[in-house]
């Protein structure tokens, strides 16, 4: 294999395996122009990774290597670690989703003790636990080049969080650390909060499921629940603590260890509680959960660029493969491929990442009710366990499943409009004419099911979003419900809906040509994108319908009457 001497960037997402990777490594050793190499979503294992790593030891031009979603494992990580000890040009290494565990992480950490050029390292979606992250923490105590470290979606717990917190008190180079979607509890979060008091340079992203109070006096209110107050942690500044229920039974609280100000009991944290005792007490973390003490404000408020990139369609309405005709529901898979319910073309289109045109994966044989036809499909989801495509075939009053070109009807005689699947694989379907999602009476369009099996439904006819907790007899309004209109407290024919891990509700406000973010309990929402009138400019939408996020947090919107899918990139 030869690499053209004038080429500076290569993207090779072509199912590369170890043998081809070896040839690529041979070519890379002698190339003097390539600066960016994208090998994501291939099948490269530890053997291929070793040959590419050997090339990195000699290459002097490569700046960015994207190796995500391969299967290099700990052995491949060891090879890359060896290369990093010698390489002096690479600044960005992306190896998320590569089956890397604690051993592989140790090799990478050892390499970072010598490497002085790498600034960005992405290790998300691997199998890194407390042991592996301790090695990284030890390295961060001394490393002076790394500015961004992404460790989200791993298995890091409180012990690992404590070690990282210790490192952050000494490291002044790291400016962004992403720890969301790990196993870090309240104790680990508190360690990290304490570290931020000493390190003011870093942006820390961590998933917080209980309420931490900052700059709040002892016992002062810290939640929308007036029965919750701030309990100051022992050994921290006097305005930082845990937001919890104010009236636990004093006799049930055990004193903290006097010498270490720690708690031996599981799921407790050492706090000041002078109303019960002059000595610090072990407070149950269960009493500080967000279901008891909902936060007054959001800990993380992401923003997106207001000018979107068209990633599908945008060539006027039509039935060519580079066109769409009134796209409705969309689904983004782990590879950033977009599945689109192309309503007026009676088909489901898959638009692969960075592709110029889509490919028909269901329907596309004219409007009809045969098994190979669709009739105004309104929504689509992909079951990522068996890779089957599930379609709301609205005009044919059925929910249909396509798997390897074979079709079967899952539900018949239903005016299906929106689809959702929970983490257990259960399918939820909204019936538009019967005004129900299973048994709940509203005018449902699109739906979303969160991790607790709460069901969120856009009630377009009443211009609101409803939420039903699991087994609830009636729902509550969580967005809109103040009549139709364009104020921040109102919606106008809401459609697509997604709820993030923090409970923030994202909804397409079709009649107002915008996407809104709403927090449960708030009287008003905020505009996320759009809201500049209906139009075709990159900062405008025209009756948006479906929406989705990719695994990096970028927002995708089905821009219905502009016949396109828009991607709004997250601002990190």
TrEMBL record:
SMART domains: LRR_RI
Keywords: Leucine-rich repeat, Repeat
NHL-type repeats, residues: 484-515
InterPro entries in UniProt: 6-blade_b-propeller_TolB-like (IPR011042), Leu-rich_rpt (IPR001611), LRR_dom_sf (IPR032675), NHL_repeat (IPR001258), PP1-Reg/Actin-Interact_Protein (IPR051279)
Coiled-coil ranges from the UniProt annotation: none
Keyword Methyltransferase: no
Family label: Belongs to the PPP1R37 family.
Name under which the protein is recorded: Uncharacterized protein
Organism of origin: Adineta steineri
């Amino acid at each position: 294999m030869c690499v053209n001497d004038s080429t500076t960037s290569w993207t090779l997402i072509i199912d590369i395996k170890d043998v081809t990777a070896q040839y690529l490594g041979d070519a890379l050793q002698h190339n003097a122009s390539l600066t960016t190499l994208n090998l994501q979503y291939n099948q490269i294992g530890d053997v291929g990774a070793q040959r590419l790593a050997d090339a990195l030891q000699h290459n002097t031009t490569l700046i960015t290597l994207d190796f995500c979603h391969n299967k290099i494992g700990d052995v491949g990580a060891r090879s890359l670690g060896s290369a990093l000890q010698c390489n002096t040009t690479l600044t960005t290494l992306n190896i998320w989703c590569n089956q890397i565990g604690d051993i592989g992480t140790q090799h990478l950490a050892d390499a970072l003790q010598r490497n002085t050029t790498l600034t960005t390292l992405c290790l998300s979606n691997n199998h890194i636990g407390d042991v592996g992250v301790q090695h990284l923490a030890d390295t961060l105590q001394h490393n002076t080049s790394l500015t961004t470290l992404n460790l989200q979606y791993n298995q890091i717990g409180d012990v690992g969080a404590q070690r990282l917190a210790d490192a952050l008190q000494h490291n002044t180079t790291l400016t962004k650390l992403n720890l969301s979607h790990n196993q870090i509890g309240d104790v680990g979060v508190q360690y990290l909060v304490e570290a931020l008091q000493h390190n003011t340079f870093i942006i820390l992203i961590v998933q917080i499921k209980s309420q931490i109070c900052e700059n709040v006096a002892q016992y002062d209110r810290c939640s929308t629940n007036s029965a919750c107050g701030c309990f100051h942690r022992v050994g921290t500044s006097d305005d930082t603590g845990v937001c919890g229920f104010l009236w636990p039974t004093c006799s049930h609280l055990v004193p903290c260890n006097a010498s270490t100000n720690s708690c031996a009991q599981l799921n407790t944290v050492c706090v000041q509680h002078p109303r019960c005792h002059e000595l610090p007490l072990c407070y149950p973390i269960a009493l500080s959960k967000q279901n008891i003490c909902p936060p007054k404000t959001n800990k993380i408020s992401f923003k997106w660029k207001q000018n979107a990139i068209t990633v599908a369609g945008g060539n006027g309405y039509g039935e060519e493969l580079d066109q769409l005709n009134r796209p409705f529901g969309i689904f983004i898979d782990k590879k950033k491929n977009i599945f689109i319910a192309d309503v007026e073309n009676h088909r489901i289109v898959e638009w692969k990442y960075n592709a110029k045109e889509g490919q028909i994966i269901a329907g596309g044989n004219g409007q009809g009710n045969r098994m190979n036809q669709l009739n105004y499909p309104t929504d689509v989801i992909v079951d990522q366990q068996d890779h089957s495509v599930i379609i709301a075939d609205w005009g044919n009053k059925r929910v249909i499943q396509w798997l390897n070109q074979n079709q079967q009807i899952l539900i018949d005689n239903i005016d299906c409009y929106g689809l959702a699947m929970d983490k257990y694989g259960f399918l939820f379907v909204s019936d538009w004419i019967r005004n129900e999602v299973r048994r709940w009476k509203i005018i449902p369009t699109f739906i979303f099911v969160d991790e607790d099996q709460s069901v969120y439904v856009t009630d377009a006819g009443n211009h609101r979003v409803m939420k039903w907790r699991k087994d609830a007899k009636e729902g509550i309004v969580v967005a809109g419900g103040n009549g139709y209109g364009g104020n921040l407290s109102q919606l106008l024919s809401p459609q697509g809906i997604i709820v993030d891990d923090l409970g923030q509700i994202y909804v397409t406000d079709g009649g107002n040509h915008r996407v809104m973010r709403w927090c449960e309990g708030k009287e008003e929402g905020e505009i996320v994108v759009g809201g500049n009138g209906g139009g075709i400019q990159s900062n405008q939408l025209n009756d948006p319908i479906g929406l989705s996020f990719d695994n990096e947090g970028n927002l995708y919107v089905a821009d219905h009457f502009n016949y396109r899918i828009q991607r709004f990139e997250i601002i990190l």
